[in-house]
Amino acid sequence: MNWRVTMTDTSESWREQGENMGLNEETARIELYCNYRDKETWQEEADVENYSSLNKYLRDMINLGRVYRKEGTQGRQDADDRVQELEAQIETLQRELANQEPETIGPDVVDNALIETLLGEQYQTVEEILEQLTANENLQANLKKPVEDALYDLAGDGRAEYQEGWGWRLGGEQ
User: Fold this and answer.
1) In terms of domains, do 8 and 94 share one?
2) One domain for residues 15 and 58
3) pTM for the whole thing?
4) Within this chain, do residues 66 and 122 fall inside the same structural domain, yes or no?
5) Coiled coil: which residue ranges (predicted)?
């Protein structure tokens, strides 16, 4: 890369020209000489980034370079360290979540009396009964087995009945 930068803002003609263009009197002119391919690459990048001019794009790139140089690699190293720390936390939390036993809800939460209060004259599916208990899908998943067990117990005692295609209802001896 063969670049050359020259400062040409000292001439009075430039200052007058800049004022005629509406530029601030503090504006300086810098000429940059570079390889034609570099200019084309920069112009393409400026177009992709929707810059209105190559000048604005180069000014932003210079300022970003200055910030990077000022921060040095320390800023990047700090960010990389933080990313690694967060990834380690994620792995730890995923392991803890995988090792957690799903909470099971046993017959002490779902008993025959509770199920009996949910049954009426109309047939209901187990899923409809579960919906009455809660709208929470996780709770429904944990409740399904105990609810089915309670329904079969009630049916065994003659206090509930099941009709294929219809579901469960209060029935028999009450």
Assistant:
1) yes
2) yes
3) 0.36
4) no
5) 76-103
Cβ contacts of 142 within 8 Å, gap of 6 or more: 102, 103, 104, 105
Amino acid letter at 31?
Answer: E
Contact of 8 with 29, CB cutoff 8 Å: yes
In 3-state terms, what secondary structure has residue 124? strand
Helices 54-99 and 36-48 cross at an angle (nearest 10°) of 60
- CB distance 139 to 153 below 8 Å: no
pLDDT tens by residue, 81-138: 888 888 898 888 888 877 776 555 554 566 677 778 778 888 888 888 878 777 556 5
Domain count, the chain: 2
126 touches 168 (CB < 8 A): yes
Q: Which of 68, 99, 130 is the last residue of a domain?
A: 99
Mean pLDDT for the chain overall: 78
Domain that holds residue 70: 4-99
**Nearest Cα to Cα of residue 110 among 132, 94, 91, 79:** 132
- The encoded tokens of residue 117 equal 């209060």
Q: How many whole angstroms separate alpha carbon 132 and alpha carbon 138?
A: 14
10 and 84 both lie in a single domain: yes
